[in-house]
Write a structure and sequence with these properties.
By secondary structure, this protein is an alpha/beta fold. The protein is built from 13 helices and 12 strands. The radius of gyration is 21 Å and the shape is globular.
């Protein structure tokens, strides 16, 4: 595995057990705390990552990973989580603050040109949703095969020994575009209970906002096991943000919880309105509160079997099959075969 930055211990056991080759940026002291500020240097650094000894390169990219140097005879397959969101869609919306936001706005035209230019070095794009595939076409002018990110339906499961409790749940990174404040206000103003799980630069702001209401608990970061337990007990999951794809609603479904989600982006592919959850338009706290009422009155999500079956359509085996097929096709175009 080649990576720009590796903070030891942050990956799971599989990743930490790999032979990891880091860029020069990873040697900076305490880089895990300020790596977002290094974005202007990342294109140049990744362009010096020489992978020309490999016959197959799989890049996992939401920023610059697809810009590595690859032998023209090799197959380069990019699983693209999104073209750089913060230069194509939400310029400056990464929680960097005033100076960082203005810096991104100044750099955005150059970063967009670099991002578009390095797309030519990819033989085959995969997108984690049809939503992202459309963005890849818009930004890069390239087709992308849709291979949905997998939900671990063996880990995320219902628990028939526990019941649903009278509180809603948000599981999210706490950055501006996640719109977690909409959930806090919607629940706080209507007297509903809410638990917020997540961390990020907006954590203290969300805690301060929640402090003005009763029944709103901001729990910060929690383990996967704790998140699963919350899915199993919550009345429903709230997702007020627009996601590129979004595994959280599917994890919730797999644990038997239905979803109230803003009806845009990946939610249009992961949430079945009136069956696995409720979709609402107009991204604000008032419309979210109305959607929660519709969720409650309609008794959405009462059939746990349907929720679990729906999440199963996005399972690991489906992902492996789709991913492997795209890799085989890319290798075949280079006159090579994948034997595993």
């Amino acid at each position: 595995m080649h990576t720009l930055i590796h903070v030891k211990g942050k990956g799971d056991a599989v990743i930490e057990g790999m032979r990891i080759r880091e860029s020069v940026l990873s040697r900076l002291p305490g880089v895990g705390g300020y790596y977002r500020w290094l974005l202007p240097f990342m294109p140049a650094v990744v362009g010096r990552m020489d992978l020309r000894d490999y016959e197959l390169v799989l890049s996992l990219s939401h920023c610059v990973a697809k810009g590595v140097r690859v032998d023209p005879r090799a197959a380069h397959v990019c699983y693209c989580f999104t073209p750089m969101r913060y230069v194509w869609v939400d310029v400056g919306d990464e929680g960097r603050g005033g100076v960082g936001e203005w810096g991104l706005r100044i750099l955005a035209p150059w970063l967009r040109a670099w991002d578009r230019g390095t797309a030519a070095g990819v033989d085959q794009f995969m997108a984690n949703s049809a939503n992202v595939a459309r963005r890849i076409m818009s930004c890069y002018g390239r087709e992308a095969e849709v291979v949905y990110s997998p939900v671990d339906t063996e880990f995320y499961t219902p628990d028939c020994t526990v019941g649903r409790e009278d509180w809603y749940l948000v599981v999210s990174a706490l950055t501006p575009y996640k719109r977690v404040e909409d959930a806090v206000i919607a629940c706080g103003e209507t007297g509903r209970k809410l638990k917020v799980i997540g961390s990020g630069p907006g954590l203290e702001g969300i805690r301060k906002l929640a402090g003005g209401y009763s029944g709103i608990d901001v729990l910060g970061w929690r383990t996967d096991e704790e998140v699963r337990e919350a899915y199993r007990r919550c009345r429903g999951l709230l997702m007020p943000q627009e996601e590129d794809f979004g595994l959280v609603p599917l994890e919730a479904n797999a644990c038997g919880a239905a979803v109230v989600a803003y009806g845009a982006g990946g939610a249009l592919e992961t949430v079945v309105d009136g069956v696995t959850g409720v979709l609402y338009s107009g991204q604000n706290s008032e419309n979210l509160a109305k959607a929660i009422v519709r969720f409650e009155v309609g008794g959405i999500g009462g059939d746990v079997g349907k929720l679990v079956a729906w999440s199963g359509r996005f399972g690991v085996e489906k992902f492996r099959g789709g991913y492997g097929e795209v890799v085989r096709e890319a290798l075949a175009l280079k006159g090579r075969n994948l034997w595993c």
